[in-house]
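ugh ok fine here u go
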Amino acid sequence: MDAVQRFGRVVGVPDPPLDRAALALAAGADPRIDADRWLRELDRLAAGVTTLPGLRQRLFVEEGFGGNTGDYTDPRNSLLHHVLHRRLGIPITLAVVTMEVGRRAGVPIEGVGMPGHFLVRPTGTNRYLDVFAGGTEISGARCEQLFRGATGAGPEVPFGPHLLTATPTRAILVRMLENLRAVYGARNRPADLEWVLRMRLLLPGVRLADVLELATAMGDQGRWHEGARLLEERIPAASVAHAERLRTAARSLRAHLN
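structure:
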């Protein structure tokens, strides 16, 4: 069973565990990953923590977790085992660490999928923590500032509670994969982009663009026939407009075989 299949098994249950799912995702980049080792590391980080201040002290002071401001697009920032090893990450993976250590410690933390900058908060509260900035508690005004700075949204775009909702596990995984998709695409790494997109197809909200990009990544590795076949297999269930786009893309891939 390859990493994508293992990931599918983990996320295929009704309420997938975030820690195991994030490690299964990371196995796409490193199939030799020892998930149990990193689950034990999360256990160790939670030992003796009983309060939110204690959680913040443990992770961001004693253990030194922080945002990788020097190389934000390093793909290791999106792979949980590397984040646990290097103590560096981006907002969403640092959030996963915080949520999973908090869960083990009996300090429930939920992810807040604000566009542009992932946050966390104690479950059911309006207290927001910026884990990329050392677990600092921030105001609603600071949340808006981060949102507008990250997205470029102007004052005509309303900001409010609708952008600060709790994010379920599968949505967190989708966002982690989208980050890797952007990183590997920018670095022209089609083999890595392929496993990311194959995992993406196992989660809700799949778009036609996801399938087309996966086929292109396969073609970029010289596997034009496989890419074309992937597209053609989806034609019977597609709408008329989508079916035509799938046929056109499949023909384009097969043209490389002539």
